[in-house]
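1st attempt posting a full record on here, be nice pls
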Amino acid sequence: MTGPNVQMIAYNHYYENGQPLREYFTEQDIIIEDNVWLGANVIVLAGAKVGRGVLVGAGAVVIGDLPPHTVCVGVPAKAVKTLQ
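the predicted structure (as tokens):
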């Protein structure tokens, strides 16, 4: 389930010596498991994995793995509560 304005971006610029190269991109899968809720304006970036039963708070930016059955918030998103 998603709120309004959720973005999932599976690519990024390739960087060389700290500089982004416009012509080159890297792509990575985004994995969203079952029973996940993404709040309004959440951004999920390339390579992220959102575990089963996760609630992601509004405005969070997901850049890595979020453990199953947790509430995650912030930039970057981090688990702040475990769900039963």
